[in-house]
Write a structure and sequence with these properties.
globular; 0% strand; 6 helices; 73% helix
């Protein structure tokens, strides 16, 4: 009986962690919510790449939509904190780095795709670029003039 239980635990541990935006939405701490959302976006991109390699291109649009929703949730969560990124940069800088990495990975994925399928990533890349630029501007902006 113990062997069966041990095997079951090992099998469950070997399964890839499912990316789930509901876990991020349930987080009460807005900063942690943004981190969980960006982690979810990264996991969705990995899943989309794996499915593309397997030839299951019909599921990629769902993953791309999930990436965009995750980045949007992260952006909205950080905005809802009403904190100044210059005075409290920890979570903002982390999100800026995560979006920059996500952009780089999206670009690589788009280059790996066939030419006819590349346009499917244009919208999500534009959204991630917009969020990244806003985060960077918030971190680098000088004193506000009155």
């Amino acid at each position: 009986m113990k062997i069966i239980l041990l095997l079951a635990i090992l099998l469950l541990a070997a399964l890839p962690a499912a990316a789930d935006l509901t876990k991020a939405k349930a987080e009460q701490n807005l900063e942690r919510r943004s981190k969980l959302a960006l982690d979810n976006a990264d996991a969705e991109l990995k899943t989309a790449r794996e499915e593309y390699r397997k030839g299951e291109t019909e599921k990629i649009a769902e993953h791309v939509a999930e990436i965009e929703a995750s980045v949007d949730l992260a952006d909205q969560s950080l905005k809802q904190t009403n904190k100044d990124p210059r005075k409290s940069p920890k979570w903002f800088k982390s999100a800026e780095i995560a979006t920059r990495d996500l952009l780089r990975k999206l670009e690589t994925f788009q280059q790996d795709m066939s030419f006819s399928e590349r346009s499917g990533l244009d919208q999500v890349k534009a959204k991630v670029q917009q969020v990244h630029d806003e985060l960077l501007l918030g971190l680098m902006e000088g004193k506000k003039r009155k």
